[in-house]
Design brief:
Elements (H helix, E strand, L loop, with lengths): L1 H15 L10 E7 L7 E7 L2 E6 L10 E5 L4 E6 L8 H8 L3 E9 L2 E9 L5 E10 L1
Antiparallel strand pairs: 1-2, 1-8, 2-3, 3-4, 4-5, 5-6, 6-7, 7-8
Length: 135
Amino acid sequence: MKIPILLLLTFSLLSCSSNLKCDDFRNGNFYIESENDTIDKIVIVRKRNSQKEWVNEIGNGKSGDIKLNWIDECTYRINYDETSKNFTKREKLINDNNGILVEKIFIIGRCMNYKATMKRKDGKIIERFGKICKE
């Protein structure tokens, strides 16, 4: 008798923890855990076609305006707003190379694993893999 009840409880819990969809990553507050020893995470506030990013917490340091160009429901390209006061060399490099293409690998729970790719003008391809989670 205990086994059927335990199985029923397990299935009930699993059905409640459904995965988010791609559209759930277009608006809201998110974070990306950092691999850098001095940074815990990157905090993101996203509104459809734009986002702002901060190190560790909202309001911590400068946040450039980032433009998102959605290619399909799960894929988008990141570019920086060149009219920003503090447009950096790194941001200019990204824009000069047609931005960063972000593609979904898979979604589990509240997190999307992704591949970010930048193809430089010299033909070199830079790829990074990461995970963005909805708060």
